[in-house]
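MOLECULE: protein
FOLLOWS: sequence and fold
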Amino acid sequence: MIARVFLDGQPTGGLTRDRILDNITLYWVTRTATSAARIYWEGARAAALASGHAPGGLPPSRVHGLPG
């Protein structure tokens, strides 16, 4: 949704460029982006553990050996 607002210039779902930039600026200037993101990360981790899934990280993938 955020990309559509910036690329198309059309407000989407109540999001406008000004509203997005206001939020980014607020977290940047007050240096609270990390602590704010941590709340979401901890919530997602707790939900993953509660449902029996491994929390965070990337899904396993194959490693290809390249010659040389």
